[in-house]
Design a protein that fits this description.
Elements lengths: L19 H6 L4 H11 L3 H9 L4 H8 L7 H5 L8 H33 L2 H4 L1 E3 L7 E3 L3 H8 L2 E6 L6 E9 L2 E9 L5 E9 L4 E9 L12 H4 L2 E7 L6 E8 L4 E6 L1
Antiparallel strand pairs: 1-2, 3-4, 4-5, 5-8, 6-7, 6-9, 9-10
Helix pairs in contact: 4-6
Protein name: Anti-sigma factor family protein
Keywords: Membrane, Transcription, Transcription regulation, Transmembrane, Transmembrane helix
Organism: Streptomyces cinerochromogenes
Length: 259
C-alpha cells in the first residue's frame, strides 16, 4: 500500500508529515513552511490532517503550554472534527517542542548578533567625501536597541575607571540586555556576567577589546572614542537580578552595575 501510514497505527512517519501541526499553528519559519507546502501538494494524508486541524490552533497552543500531556485525549474528545487521540497528543508534543526550539533559536540569534557586534563600532565608521573627509558614525543594531530601552542602570569603577550602562527589557523567557561600555583599553577578553539574587552567575555575552579600546574620551581615532554596545540574554526576570559584572577572562572585575 503506497503513501505514509497513519501515526495512530503505531508506524513511524517520515519527518515531512510531522510538521503538519506546526504548520497549522503558523510557527514554522519561512524555509520550513515553503518546504512543507511543497510536500503538502502531493500528500493526501497531510492535506486531510490539515483540514481536520482547521480552527484548532488556539486549542493546540493552549495544550502546548500545559505541563505534561495527560489531559490531551480528554480535551481532544471535545473537538467537533478531530484526529485520533494519539495523533492529537503527538501534535501537541510536536508544537511544544517546536516552541522550545524557537525559544532556543532566539537565544542563539541573540548570541550570534552579540558576536557580530564585537566589531560594531569599527564597522559603523563610514568615510564621508574621500580619504581626507570627515567621519560619520552610524548606530549599530545593538546601539539602536539600547536607545529604545527605558530601564537603564549605570556605574563607574573607582579603580579601573571603566564605565558601564546596562539596559534591560523583560521577556517571556527572561531578560534581554544591552551593555554600553566606556573607557576600557585592550587587549582584553571580557564577559558580561549576571548575578542573580539567589547567587547564581550567568554569562550573558563575551567579547574582545582591541588595542585601541572603546569609549576612550581623549582617543585620537573615532573608533576608539565610540563605546561598545553588545547584547546579551539570560533566563532571569529583571526583579530576580541583583547586579551585573564586567569581568576579564582572568577574573578581574572591571565594573559592577547594580540592578
Amino acid at each position: 500500500m503506497s503513501g505514509p501510514m497513519n501515526p495512530s497505527q503505531g508506524s513511524s512517519v517520515p519527518s515531512e508529515h510531522e510538521t503538519v501541526g506546526a504548520y497549522a499553528l503558523g510557527i514554522l519559519d519561512d524555509a520550513e513552511a515553503t518546504a512543507f507546502e511543497a510536500h503538502l501538494a502531493g500528500c493526501e494524508w497531510c492535506a486531510q490532517q490539515l483540514d481536520e486541524l482547521a480552527g484548532m490552533e488556539p486549542m493546540l497552543a493552549a495544550l502546548a503550554d500545559l505541563p505534561g500531556s495527560g489531559s490531551t485525549p480528554a480535551i481532544g474528545e471535545s473537538l467537533s472534527a478531530r484526529p485520533s487521540p494519539r495523533v492529537v497528543e503527538k501534535l501537541v508534543d510536536e508544537v511544544a517542542e517546536r516552541r522550545a526550539q524557537k525559544r532556543r533559536r532566539s537565544m542563539y540569534m541573540i548570541a550570534a548578533a552579540a558576536a557580530l557586534i564585537i566589531a560594531g563600532p569599527l564597522a559603523a565608521v563610514a568615510v564621508n567625501g574621500g580619504s581626507d573627509g570627515g567621519q560619520q558614525v552610524a548606530a549599530t543594531p545593538a546601539q539602536q536597541t539600547f536607545r529604545t530601552m527605558s530601564d537603564k542602570k549605570s556605574a563607574t569603577d573607582a579603580s579601573t575607571h571603566v564605565s558601564a550602562t546596562v539596559a534591560m527589557t523583560p521577556k517571556d523567557w527572561g531578560t534581554q540586555a544591552v551593555l554600553e561600555l566606556k573607557n576600557v583599553k585592550g587587549p582584553l577578553k571580557c564577559s558580561l556576567v549576571l548575578v542573580a539574587k539567589n547567587g547564581q552567575r550567568v554569562t550573558m555575552s563575551s567579547w574582545s577589546v582591541p588595542n585601541w579600546g572603546y569609549g576612550i574620551p581623549d582617543a585620537k581615532t573615532e573608533q576608539s572614542k565610540q563605546p561598545l554596545y553588545i547584547g546579551g540574554a539570560a533566563a532571569f526576570q529583571p526583579d530576580e537580578i541583583d547586579h551585573f559584572e564586567v569581568v576579564t577572562f582572568e577574573g578581574k572585575k572591571l565594573v559592577q552595575v547594580d540592578a
